[in-house]
Amino acid sequence: MTLPPFHDFDILREVVAAFQPAPSVQPNETISLERVFTPESHRAVLDLGRQLIVGNRGMGKSLWAHALSNPEVRQRVSDIYRQPALAHTEVVIGFNGSDRPSPVAPTREAIGRAIGNGFSEDEIWRAVVFRAIRVISGSSEDTLFESSLQRLRRAPELFENTLLDADDRLRAEDRKVLILFDALDRLADDWRSIRALTSSLMKRALGLRSFVSFRAKIFIRPDQFSDPEIFRFPDGSKLKNDHVDLSWQPHELYGLLFFEMLHDPGAHTAMFNLAASLEAEAALSPEGLRSRRAQQQQIEIVNALAGPFMGSDARRGRVYTWIPLHLSDARNSCSPRTFLTAWQEAALHDPAPNDRMVNHLGLIEGVRRASTARLNELREDYRWIDEALGALRGQFVPITKEELFDIWAEQRVVTKILENESRGISQAPVGLIDGPDALQQLLAAMKGIAVVEERTNGKINVPDIFRVEAGIKRKGGVAVPRRQ
Question: 1.10.10, 2.30.29, 1.10.155, 1.20.120: which CATH number matches 382-474?
Answer without folding.
Answer: 1.10.10
